[in-house]
């Protein structure tokens, strides 16, 4: 995730520089990112995730047009970002588009309980007419109009766990909570075909499909972490993204069980999310 900002701050994490290899930076903290080199134009994506807790930390799923960060490129991105601050009870939906000064349309949604205490199903629907976000089967936001119309190119699917240095947005970073982990039980991609969504593939993460996924090894301005491939692991049918100190990468613990793997009700006792505007 390259450009980030909070309630009205309009701050960019990497809008002025390219992502660079983490081996050239060697930051003291390491995160994890998994992405598809292949892009997808429109569709429905459902992801079953249990997020990380801790101020300054972000657990995400998003779509991103490869090369958006390059000079002279038009940015295209659709976000789901869970804040670790305040007991991980809120998340942000967002669309980012444009060249130079970018157009953003973020909203913040608050759950009944911590999103780090159970798995939930996060859904993005992207069509030529609208983008919609759902939480545990309930739509919480739908947007139409000019910004949606500018999303014209295929976008890759990405998940990452990282720490922004924009304190006003994510809170002050507390490294005493490390290590933290984001758990992904499954992901489903439905292609968009003549007004309908058709299941194209599902990944249950029984193993890591190298033909579909790649591990990031870069960082960007505004990010406290390097993305280290060792912080992307698969264990017990679950994808694990980790946020650790340097020298403590990887995941060796027990994967928390998903009590409900269906796309309806979420686990952990949290109910539906409510929506508030940010900015």
UniProtKB/TrEMBL annotation:
The keyword Oxidoreductase applies. Residues 1-195 form the GH16 domain. Keywords: Dioxygenase, Glycosidase, Hydrolase, Oxidoreductase, Signal. One of its GO terms (biological process) is carbohydrate metabolic process. Residues 1-26 form the signal peptide. Pfam families: Glyco_hydro_16 (PF00722). The active site is at residues 77, 81. PROSITE patterns: GH16_2. Transmembrane segments: none annotated. SUPFAM superfamilies: Concanavalin A-like lectins/glucanases. Residues 251-279 are annotated as: Disordered. InterPro entries: Beta-glucanase-like, Beta_glucanase, ConA-like_dom_sf, Glycosyl_Hydrlase_16. Belongs to the glycosyl hydrolase 16 family. This is Benzene 1,2-dioxygenase. It comes from Sorangium cellulosum.
């Amino acid at each position: 995730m390259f450009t980030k900002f909070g309630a009205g701050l309009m701050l960019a994490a990497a809008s002025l520089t390219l992502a660079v290899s983490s081996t050239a930076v060697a930051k003291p903290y390491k995160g994890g990112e998994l992405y598809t080199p292949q892009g997808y134009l429109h569709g429905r994506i459902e992801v079953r995730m249990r997020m990380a807790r801790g101020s300054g930390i972000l657990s995400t799923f998003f779509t991103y047009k490869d090369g958006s960060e390059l000079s002279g490129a038009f940015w295209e991105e659709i976000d789901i970002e869970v804040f670790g601050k305040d007991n991980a009870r809120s998340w942000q939906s967002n669309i980012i588009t444009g060249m130079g000064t970018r157009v953003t349309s973020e909203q913040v949604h608050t759950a009944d309980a911590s999103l780090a205490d159970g798995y939930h199903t996060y859904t993005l629907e992207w069509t030529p007419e609208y983008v919609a976000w759902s939480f545990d089967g309930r739509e919480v936001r739908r947007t139409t109009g000019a910004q949606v119309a500018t999303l014209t190119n295929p976008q890759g699917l990405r998940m990452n766990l990282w720490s922004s240095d924009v304190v006003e947005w994510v809170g002050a970073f507390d490294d005493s909570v490390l290590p933290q982990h984001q758990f992904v039980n499954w992901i489903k991609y439905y292609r968009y075909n003549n007004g309908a969504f058709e299941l194209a593939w599902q990944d249950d993460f029984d193993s890591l499909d190298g033909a579909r996924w790649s591990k990031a090894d870069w960082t960007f301005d505004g990010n406290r972490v390097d993305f280290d491939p060792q912080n992307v692991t698969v264990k017990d049918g679950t994808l694990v993204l980790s946020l650790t100190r340097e020298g403590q990468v990887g995941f060796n613990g027990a994967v928390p069980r998903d009590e409900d793997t269906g796309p309806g009700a979420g686990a952990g006792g949290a109910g539906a999310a409510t929506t508030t505007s940010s900015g």
